[in-house]
Write a structure and sequence with these properties.
5 strands, alpha/beta, Nucleotidyltransferase, domain 5, 11% strand, single chain
Length: 285
Amino acid sequence: MISNSFIHFKGIGPVGESRLWSRGFISWDDVCERGATDRLAGRAITQAFESRLELARRNAGFFHVRLPARERWRMYEDFLGEVAFLDIETSGGYGEPELITLIGVLDRRGYRSFIRGDNLDQFPEAARDWKLLVTFNGAAFDVPIIEGCFGQRIFEGAGHLDLRFPLARIGYAGGLKSIERQLGVGRPEELSLLSGQDALRLWRLHCEGEPEALATLIRYNLEDVRSLPRLAEIAVDRLAQAAPLRSTSPRRFVDNSQGDLPFDRGLVGFLTRGRALSEISLGRI
């Protein structure tokens, strides 16, 4: 799909890209093979050869830097085999530095969690395998917090697709769980009742010795991460329909996770009932 794009070329914007498509230059190969038939194609030819080379090198960072932020969804299909869907949980701050408690990642190896006090320090090494990072609101939240935590540009050289923006372009705004409901991307009913505030409480309960709190937090995170491939596919499919962005490979991510992870239903019920009582006491229900 990225090979049908010219919008990342210097001197070529949306109008120039549309003109190239209308003149039969549908891909970089068309430009390279037919040559500079007019001034616009001449402007594109050197950059088409360069883009073909960088794609062959699997250099997602090259396209991330050059693509307009609203068009980075075009990288998704070509780097799907080297993608990582990511979501973090934090301590919430409350007057203190906001600490990462858990980083959940879904990639070709399946789901993995990197947990404070256990294996969080292994995350930078794992991140070297990824060419494309997919998050929801990660540009404003997850990525800055991760790079602040480790004191380095963990994802330098990789591409980043923040789904908040392509989903808004196709008419779906709001939080992750709200968009899931709008698009029919579900999670188990019990877990759909948990919120970000409940994730903070689960970490605190874990620190206080509650035996099932960490497992329940990990399962909550898994559900957040697991929805990202489905949302990405919906956004990319709909946006690609508006342009001659031909599919060169499947857009479907294969989740190799070994089934579902356990969680404590009693603990989930305790958290959601407690929140409901709090809302009632504040007059919100």
